[in-house]
Design brief:
Length: 702
């Protein structure tokens, strides 16, 4: 039985539109171990085609190719991969070393695909490189070697798995005559060690030193000469330990391990680091923008919420009456905006209405919330009054500056809510009941004003308004029943209306305002009810009940906050969509870059396949790479977001005294996860394209 036996092999290349080109025609030949065969013939005679068939790179032929008596056609894909990996060693004219790997790694790669232990791998590779005179070149990259050295590295790679057959397609074609002789010597030694060496060559001189010359012409064998006086030399030291030691090879060889796959990917990523860096930058930027958008969204919402909370008391429910017209979304001022407008100029409660509201709330509590024992009672309710008076200019403050009478409108007249505290004020004290002024001996009312009114009074610092005596003029009620109020008051403090900083606002005590109206012959109807509850939970429940009651709402601040939050959530969705689009763009970018990298590395993929890489191994290398790109971009993105976020918080705190950003740990986890997922997804297509590349075509790729 011959080592290699070829019977009636025909090979046609399909040329499209059903025509084909016959490259090999009825090839019949067999080879033995220890032979050094030169295949010669004109260019295009079919030499490479034959080598590819023998090497198991091309399975599209008719006839039999038997290795040790077994037909290659009977091999499954996996067995064919194994065959290429262990039985065959390829050497190419153009060396086909992997440029981004070191000499040592270029040789060990063949073992890496079998997941041979690191130590053993290095030992075997170093030993063989030493025998080929390359022991001082281990760390170099292929481009740093001469042609002859490169070809010796390629031979070392072909030998490392101790194959039985070495296929060398024009191994000396790119070398000068001196180096050619060195390589031929090595080939001879390999054959003398008992391997079958089949070498394609153009030169008769090269052919002359081999044990057998086979000549092809137009796909047929036209000569097959065995050299009678070919000298077989005994080598004291074999290039590779074979036969007996073969049993020392691990019986069950593994495949490319994850560790090796990561190592290969890292090598390759480092080799094209600029490209990878720019790609990662794209992903990183979209991650940063995504995290910051989320942080701003939740930070602003939280800020507005806390602001609204700081204006109210968690155990007080505010009830305001809403103009039915404004509440109706189809009405002119529809929606929340209309509601806010009507809150600024609220409708007064009628006397019958208040007990009705109490009853409605209590019955809702009874029916739907049996675990809440609290009930609203008339005694627990305080009243408030507010009116936007600026429109009718019916409230104003008169004061004297440098002997000159001046006045300012009060746009918004408000009675102090029961939860209002001095902490919420910019300066001064809460206004209460009229007091006797010691200086003038008069009874003076008390009023608080906004900083804007203080500035209308010509005061540089709003604190200077405190203690000033002013005349408050207001009209109350509708014409013709309107009554005029005129009262001398002392300013006791400055209210903070941060949300409406430029408003002319004045606050009065409710009972005081009530007595003013009564004194002038009118009756004050409240526009706000303040219900003291027993707990925050009860407050929330009653607010919920109120939101279901047509015609009534909570406090202005709560209303503003919920309107803002509604806006923010719409806004957040828009931002998230933008961030999502930028992620998709980043994903397409990764896809394009990896796709291009597949074309760039086509030859490398061909080499890997020729040394036995399975489709899955190729896929693994590319997928690992896209995973690592995602992971790195994700980590960098997350770190940068944290740094940028931290700086923004510092900046906002120093500028505004608060930072409208809230970072939750899960934003970072989501960003990192998304980055990995989109990269891996983007890598799937290029990876499977790489895995499906035809090895013969890949090797011919320029
Ligand atoms: P050699 O190595 O002897 O120079 P090849 O084996 O590469 O020749 O090619 C043999 C013949 O087959 C040539 O005429 C070549 O043009 C043709 N051939 C090789 N590969 C293909 C292919 N993929 N498709 C079509 N024809 C091909
Ligand atoms: Mg060729």
């Amino acid at each position: 039985m011959s080592e290699l036996e070829i019977n009636h092999v025909y090979k046609d290349y399909k040329l499209g539109n059903k025509s084909k080109f016959n490259a090999l025609s009825d090839i019949n030949i067999s080879f033995e171990k220890g032979e050094l065969v030169s295949i010669i013939g004109e260019s295009g005679s079919g030499k490479s085609t034959l080598m590819n068939l023998i090497g198991g790179l091309d399975s599209d032929y008719t006839g039999e190719i038997k290795i040790g008596g077994i037909d290659l056609k009977s091999f499954k894909e996996k067995q064919l991969d194994d065959y290429r990996k262990k039985k065959i060693g390829f050497v190419f004219q153009s060396f086909n070393l992997i440029p981004h790997l070191s000499i040592l790694d270029n040789v060990t790669i063949a073992l890496t695909l079998s997941d041979v232990k690191e130590n053993e791998k290095l030992e075997r590779a170093k030993a063989i490189l030493k025998k080929l005179g390359l022991e001082n070149q281990l760390k170099k990259k292929p481009t740093q070697l001469s042609g002859g050295q490169k070809q010796r590295v390629a031979i070392a790679r072909a030998l490392i798995n101790d194959p039985d057959i070495i296929l060398a397609d024009e191994p000396t074609g790119s070398l000068d005559s001196m180096t050619t002789l060195q390589i031929l010597d090595i080939m001879k030694e390999i054959a003398d060690d008992g391997k079958l060496v089949i070498m394609v060559t153009h030169s008769e001189k090269v052919a002359s030193i081999s044990s057998r010359v086979v000549e092809l012409a137009d796909g047929k064998i036209i000569r097959d000469e065995i050299e009678k006086d070919y000298k077989k030399e005994k080598h004291a030291e074999k290039l590779i330990e074979n036969t007996q030691e073969n049993s020392a090879k691990p019986k069950k060889e593994g495949h490319l391990s994850l560790y090796s796959s990561i190592r290969l990917s890292l090598h390759n990523m480092w080799a094209s680091r600029t490209k990878n860096f720019l790609m990662a930058l794209g992903v990183t930027i979209s991650l940063i923008s995504m995290i910051l958008m989320l942080a701003f969204g939740s930070g602003l919402t939280g800020y507005i919420d806390s602001l609204a909370k700081s204006y109210s008391n968690p155990t007080i429910v505010t009830v305001n009456k809403v103009d039915e017209m404004a509440d109706d979304p189809s009405g002119g001022m529809g929606g929340l905006g209309g509601e806010i407008m009507s809150l600024l100029n609220p409708t007064p409660f009628t006397d019958e209405e208040i007990p009705q509201i109490i009853e409605n709330i209590n019955s809702a509590l009874e029916e739907k919330y049996p675990n809440i024992e609290y009930r609203v009672s008339q005694d627990g309710i305080k009243y408030g009054f507010s009116a936007a008076t600026g429109v009718t200019k019916s409230a104003s403050i008169n004061f004297t500056v440098d002997g000159e009478e001046k006045s300012s409108n009060i746009f918004y007249l408000y009675t102090t809510p029961p939860y209002y505290t001095e902490e919420q004020m910019l300066a001064g004290e809460l206004a209460g009941q009229p007091k006797l002024d010691e200086e003038s001996g008069e009874m003076l009312g008390e009023i608080m004003v906004s900083a804007k009114i203080a500035s209308e009074m010509g005061l540089e610092n709003y604190e200077d308004a405190i203690g000033q005596i002013v005349t408050v003029k207001a009209s109350y009620g509708q014409f013709p029943n309107a009554i005029s109020i005129e009262q001398k008051c002392k300013i006791t403090g400055i209210v903070d209306v941060s949300m409406f900083e430029t408003m002319l606002v004045a606050y009065l005590d409710y009972d005081y305002f009530d007595s003013m109206v009564t004194t002038n012959g009118g009756t004050l109807s409240p526009t706000s009810l303040y219900i003291q509850t027993d707990s925050e939970a009860t407050t929330d429940t009653i607010n919920l009940i109120l939101s279901g009651m047509q015609g009534y709402t909570g406090s202005v601040e709560n209303q503003m906050a919920s309107m803002f939050n509604e806006m923010m959530s719409t806004f957040s969705i828009a931002l998230a969509i933008i961030a999502g689009i930028s992620l998709i763009v980043a994903m397409i970018m990764i896809l394009v870059v990896l796709y291009m990298s597949v074309s760039e590395r086509t030859r490398e993929i061909g080499v890997l396949k020729s040394i036995g890489a399975r489709k899955r191994d190729i896929k693994k290398i590319f997928t690992t790479e896209s995973f690592l790109i995602g992971l790195f971009s994700g980590i960098v993105g997350v770190i940068f977001s944290a740094v940028v976020g931290g700086l923004l918080i510092l900046l906002f705190n120093s500028l505004l005294g608060f930072a409208p950003l809230a970072f939750h740990w899960y934003y970072f986890v989501i960003a990192l996860g998304l980055s990995v997922v989109i990269s891996v997804l983007a890598g799937l297509y290029p990876a499977s394209k790489a895995a499906r590349l035809d090895p013969v075509e890949s090797l011919r790729h320029e």
